[in-house]
């Protein structure tokens, strides 16, 4: 053992708390996985038989939960994969600003003003139309790996 002190400089966030390890062989369809540093929802899993060198391989086909891109990965089933911590939270929509940001009411009564309108045209139209008609709208925000995006909309009736 040496008496030297080691100093490590942190150049970036390690992102350790954003994901957790899970054995590839235990990840199922509709679960989540990190492929190419993107949080994805698994749409297809196929496992190949063990080969000459002993590892069964899992072939994952997954869709990025934020941009909808299809990604694939092949991992030995005994190896660990990163699985993102995915949270879904409902907020009441208060306002839509002209620069495309939304103002949301959190459960503790504060406002959350750092989210943009979704890029999905159908959802975007539903939100704008519903808001324009004066309806009470609740949006579902999905967050994973430091990213957040509006992914769903609920109409809870007209404003009083």
TrEMBL record:
InterPro entries: IF5A-like, IF5A-like_N, IF5A_C, NA-bd_OB-fold, Rib_uL2_dom2, Trans_elong_IF5A_hypusine_site, Translation_prot_SH3-like_sf. eIF-5A seems to be the only eukaryotic protein to have a hypusine residue which is a post-translational modification of a lysine by the addition of a butylamino group. GO terms for molecular function: ribosome binding; RNA binding; translation elongation factor activity; translation initiation factor activity. It comes from the Eukaryota. Keywords: Hypusine, Initiation factor, Protein biosynthesis. It comes from Camellia sinensis. One of its GO terms (biological process) is positive regulation of translational termination. Pfam families: eIF-5a, IF5A-like_N. The lineage of its organism: Eukaryota, Viridiplantae, Streptophyta, Embryophyta, Tracheophyta. Residues 85-154 form the Translation initiation factor 5A C-terminal domain. Residues 1-12 have a biased composition (Basic and acidic residues). Transmembrane segments: none annotated. Residues 1-21 are annotated as: Disordered. Gene3D superfamilies: 2.30.30.30, Nucleic acid-binding proteins. This is Eukaryotic translation initiation factor 5A. Belongs to the eIF-5A family. Translation factor that promotes translation elongation and termination, particularly upon ribosome stalling at specific amino acid sequence contexts. Binds between the exit (E) and peptidyl (P) site of the ribosome and promotes rescue of stalled ribosome: specifically required for efficient translation of polyproline-containing peptides as well as other motifs that stall the ribosome. Acts as a ribosome quality control (RQC) cofactor by joining the RQC complex to facilitate peptidyl transfer during CAT tailing step. PANTHER family: TRANSLATION INITIATION FACTOR 5A FAMILY MEMBER.
